[in-house]
Amino acid sequence: MSSEPRIIDIPAVHDKRGNLSVVESGKNIPFAIKRVYYLYDVPGGAKRGGHAHKKLQQLIIAASGSFDVILHNGKSREKFTLNRSNYGLYIPKMTWREIENFSSGAVCLVLASEHYDESDYIRSFKEFKNGFS
Ligand code: TYD
Predict the structure, then answer these.
(1) pLDDT band of 132, cuts 50, 70, 90
(2) How far apart (Å, rounded) are the C-alpha atoms in residues 122 and 89?
(3) pLDDT band at 1; cut points 50, 70, 90
(4) Which residue among 35, 43, 94, 129 is least enclosed by CB atoms within 10 Å?
(5) Can you tell me the mean pLDDT for 48-59?
(6) How far is it, in rounded angstroms, from Cα 7 to Cα 27?
(7) CA 116 to ligand 1: nearest atom
(8) Strand order in the sheet with 67-72
(9) 112 CB under 6 A from ligand 1?
(10) Where are the beta strands (DSSP E) in 1-133?
(11) Does 115 participate in catalysis according to the annotation?
(12) Smallest Cα–Cα separation from 70: which of 86, 42, 50?
């Protein structure tokens, strides 16, 4: 079921010095990581995303703080609240996403299956919906 959005539990190593969580390509996520980026210093009330991708798969982690990710698969909408560093949200290709409600100091870490390519973006919701008909 790798084509469904889902929360992935990222193994954590706990000791008295703190926690360490590990993501390994093809082991606990269903793609090879080609790119890593992160959103930070997001002003209160700002919204990110507002697009889908033709090919790109991603894992989104709240490395710090919390935020909401709203996904649309062309038929229905689902909201995920990310607030723990040892959980990631897997987002398959052709999924519309919006990210909002960032807490102060939140860091949104994104592991991506492809290099940056503007031609992979679908930035119109109408065009995204039309892709399913
Ligand atoms: P965008 O993906 O629209 O941001 P978000 O989905 O987080 O709201 O990207 C914002 C800008 O950053 C856009 O001009 C493209 C640029 N960008 C890169 O140059 N490389 C990247 O890897 C990403 C993700 C974005």
Answers:
(1) confident
(2) 20
(3) very low
(4) 43
(5) 98
(6) 15
(7) 22
(8) 77-82, 67-72, 96-100, 48-53, 121-122
(9) no
(10) 6-9, 12-15, 18-21, 35-39, 48-53, 58-64, 67-72, 77-82, 87-91, 96-100, 107-112, 121-122
(11) no
(12) 50
